[in-house]
Amino acid sequence: MKGIKVFSYVIFVLFIISLSGRCYGEVELDISPMEKTEQDALYSTIQGFVGDRWNGSDLYPDPCGWTPIQGVSCDFFNGLWYVTVLNIGPIHDNSLSCAKKLEFRPHLFELKHLKSLSFFKCFQSQHKHQVTIPNGNWNKLAGSLESLEFRSNTGLVGKVPSSFGVLKNLQSLVLLENGLTGKVPPEIGNLIKLKRLVLSSNYFNGQIPDMFNGLSELLIFDLSRNLLSGTLPLSLGRLTSLLKLDLSHNYLEGNLIKEFAYLKNLTLLDLRNNRFSGGLTLSFQELYSLEEMVLSNNAIGGNMRTLKWENLQNLVILDLSNIGLIGEIPESMSKLKRLRFLGLSDNNLTGNLSPKLSTLPSLNALYVSGNNLTGELNFSKNFYGKMGTRFGAWSNPNLCYQIGVMSESHVPFGVKPCHHEIKLLESNARTYKLLNGYVNKTSHTIASLGFLSCAPNGFCWTFLQEILIMCVVLNFYIGL
Ligand SMILES: *[C@@H]1O[C@H](CO)[C@@H](O)[C@H](O)[C@H]1NC(C)=O
Ligand SMILES: *[C@@H]1O[C@H](CO)[C@@H](O)[C@H](O)[C@H]1NC(C)=O
Ligand SMILES: *[C@@H]1O[C@H](CO)[C@@H](O)[C@H](O)[C@H]1NC(C)=O
Ligand SMILES: *[C@@H]1O[C@H](CO)[C@@H](O)[C@H](O)[C@H]1NC(C)=O
Ligand SMILES: *[C@@H]1O[C@H](CO)[C@@H](O)[C@H](O)[C@H]1NC(C)=O
Ligand SMILES: *[C@@H]1O[C@H](CO)[C@@H](O)[C@H](O)[C@H]1NC(C)=O
């Protein structure tokens, strides 16, 4: 690619030279007109990131025209071209890629029509040449900048400058997978046009600032995978347009606030892996748009039955694993017709598992392992067949499955067969043999196992067995 570019540039230069030869000097070059300051600012800005050996004016004499730079876009304002988009980092093969030792040059802030600035895998040095985001001059971009993104820059460290708060036109601020530290600057709350705020996978700590009063246009808010602690700020409830809220993988604690009820358009709520407590808030049952609700691995506690789950008709994924729930699994779960994943593992749930759950048309994963469920699993053979390993009910010591409906391949892992069924089959096996000359494979196996376990006091067992069989035979004839 580069070869072709250089080649075509050589041709272009030869062409110009031949023209100037003919016309004795002055030529009107068809170059996109730019202010010299704008053009120089562009070259210098890029050079700061990609290294001094990169000579912009040499390689790209017409950056908004004949010799476009990968990752740079321009727009036309009042007869001149200005840079509007600058993407640094290896997005395409021929993208600008960053040097080991690099710097933010002040020229960046001279690009007065810059709308979108992004850095991807640019600041990578882990030790020697770590970089911080400069604090000054962002005000110069306040009128134009709409999107600012630092993504996967492991060598980008230090704090987020509070001066980001002047970027009044910002609609998207993405600081994802960097090495940023310190508090989330409350000045972000000034960015009232924000639609997307992603601060995920950094090392932000401290509390989430109570800064959301003005952010009524925010659609996506992601603070996941940081070191945030403390309680939820009440102003979260002002994010009335919000579609996605992800606060997972932090150290957040305290109650799930009732202000969640204001997030009527929320489709994703992910609070997993935190330290929330205080029970499920009733306001959850007003999140009518919710499609994914993931609360797993918290200390939330409380009874599942306190919520009217049937209100959440759009739920597709519900994960309440390991949050200290008590009580019985409400039958209203079986009204969530779109539900595909239901995770209730590792709680303290009691009572029976309603076979109605198997009527959920979309369900393809159901985990209830690690609870204290009791009684019989009354699901159909088809249900176990359909779910396979995506049905998990192990570690419920008082739960059993009905052996009659089960083919051996569909026995739910880690669940024991129901006791009275065994007795019945132990005795029936012989009876069937006696009466019909027919032995069911499954029941025969169980009967043999029963015999083996009783072998040490074989006489006694055989005696008992004969009595049982007599009873069954008698019953049979009385039944007739
Ligand atoms: C870049 O190239 C131009 C033209 O070839 C040259 O005049 C200039 O000195 C070079 N600049 C640097 C910093 O090497
Ligand atoms: C919620 O979504 C609906 C439908 O998409 C939209 O009309 C409404 O304005 C949204 N509400 C808010 C507060 O953004
Ligand atoms: C479940 O209840 C038992 C007894 O009440 C308690 O010891 C245990 O810690 C509880 N487990 C969970 C996960 O809450
Ligand atoms: C399962 O079936 C048995 C007998 O058919 C019944 O006694 C029991 O209540 C049922 N359990 C559930 C959870 O429906
Ligand atoms: C499970 O429930 C039974 C009663 O159904 C109770 O006796 C037992 O202590 C419970 N086990 C745990 C670990 O909570
Ligand atoms: C015997 O097993 C088959 C499947 O292997 C099953 O269809 C049948 O219902 C079983 N009969 C009894 C009496 O358990």
From TrEMBL:
Superkingdom of source: Eukaryota
GO CC, one annotated term: plasma membrane
Keywords: Cell membrane, Leucine-rich repeat, Membrane, Repeat, Signal
Xref: InterPro entries: Leu-rich_rpt, LRR-RLK, LRR_dom_sf
GO biological process: response to other organism
Residues passing through the membrane, by range: none
Subcellular locations according to the entry: Cell membrane
Residues making up the signal peptide according to the UniProt record: 1-25
Protein name, per record: Piriformospora indica-insensitive protein 2
Organism for this UniProt entry: Crotalaria pallida
